[in-house]
């Protein structure tokens, strides 16, 4: 009997290790075989950020992915002027009524934003989205950029093609951090 306890602990530890390592951004393979030099597992919302930074152009090729149900939405953005949600220049993704992924940019101008498509304060190109293995993924090239403050979020529903506000709960309210694209 005494022998079976250590074996059980090792099995449980190994299971936890494999589950947590499968969630790491470093082990993720994108469906289009894009490779990102840097990535970070974000602390809330089961989200991950991947990027390639072009220092000479001050642009970033970014992929933001997060667990989400097909009727929800995700958003990731940069606030070039402040450390709050207001002022964030965001990328949004969700499935439309026909089940096709839709991605666009929007500026967050209030704590209950309209989330309608619009231009950002910096150029955005190659914007796309996909839904793979219960994750929504937004990719784009941004810049030139002068700031590294990032925010990310997720919501539960989309109404008439527009994401509805996210819950005002701890994970959503704390999904903000300073990220230096060159140091991680």
From TrEMBL:
It is found in: Membrane. Its main location: membrane. The keyword Signal applies. Keywords: Electron transport, Membrane, Signal, Transport. Residues 45-161 form the DOMON domain. GO terms for cellular component: membrane. The keyword Signal applies. InterPro entries: AIR12_DOMON, DOMON_domain. Residues 1-24 form the signal peptide. This is DOMON domain-containing protein.
